[in-house]
From TrEMBL:
Compositional bias of kind Basic and acidic residues: 386-396
Entry membrane topology: Multi-pass membrane protein
Organism the protein comes from: Marmota monax
Protein known as: Cyclic nucleotide-gated cation channel alpha-4
SUPFAM superfamilies given in the database record: cAMP-binding domain-like, Voltage-gated potassium channels
Location(s) in or outside the cell: Membrane
SMART domains: cNMP
One example GO MF annotation: protein-containing complex binding
Domain Cyclic nucleotide-binding: from-to ranges: 176-282
Amino acid sequence: MLYIFVVIHWNSCLYFALSRYLGFGRDAWVYPDPARPGFERLRRQYLYSFYFSTLILTTVGDTPLPAREEEYLFMVGDFLLAVMGFATIMGSMSSVIYNMNTADAAFYPDHALVKKYMKLHHVNRRLERRVIDWYQHLQINKKMTNEVAILQHLPERLRAEVAVSVHLSTLSRVQIFQNCEASLLEELVLKLQPQTYSPGEYVCRKGDIGREMYIIREGQLAVVADDGVTQYAVLGAGLYFGEISIINIKGNMSGNRRTANIKSLGYSDLFCLSKEDLREVLSEYPQAQAVMEEKGREILLKLNKLDVNAEAAEIALQEATESRLRNLDQQLDDLQTKFARLLAELESSALKIAYRIERLEWQTREWPMPEDLTEADDEGEPGEGTSKDRGGRASQERPSGPE
């Protein structure tokens, strides 16, 4: 817009200069004679020229017809400038809109393909409406579902710092992650996956196997009965659930299964952390894993959902299994040592047999026996230069026998 005003300003100056050159008031096209009342003031001269230039460049018309060649040339030049300027502006606007759509397509999911898929397979209109509303909710509220793809071009360390800056405070609220090492939390932050649930959608159902834990970022979730209507509790932003199911706690009566139905009351934004991702990170932090399991055990004890006898049985079974594994490892090491010793003895025996055969060949042909074979025979083992270097023995020249 600023460029348009600048162009009109300079075109106004050219119009006024041309009017002065041709003579003020000589015809209806040029600027009126400043001697007339009201046209002598500078502000009036500028506004009149600016208005006249705006009419020409916007191709609105309603301007006096030119009467001289100079006036015709000025009008033609302004019309060409207006056409080129309009084309440039439209092209720039199209480019801006295209770039905005491209950026949106990169950050936010496009529902066009999903919409075509649902029409192709004749998905019912109610479900189709829910899917489209979900996509529109993401685009209107600028919510991203794949932060990993967006940050993938950043260096690993810088990507971790961005993720920590955005999500660390959310993860720190979870009880089992409190007082954990900062490096552990940084790695867990990179594993968080944002998810958006539409109104009435179930996040989990009672009896499902728990493979993820959830942290509520925005929105509200309801703990409902099996009928889906009766509400026991409402969970808001900052709360979390499912953390026990992703930790294998011995004696857990629930057996890592969901104990309640949780449904979204409106559009809800959650962070999801899977059991596999947690296990991958904890493999490098065994002490943190033990601390988390102990915290989870304390939570289950408070909820009376920990079977102490089953826990003791699982611990005993685990210890017995670990003991058997240690014994198997020791036996495997012993077998490997024994195998290596037998292999060395086999190689030594094969080498001795090879030299005995060679010595017999020399004796059979009645050739003078080399000193190294004689020494090997006296010492009972191959000598230096023949027993340890087959190449050296092969390079020795045997005396030619009788033809």
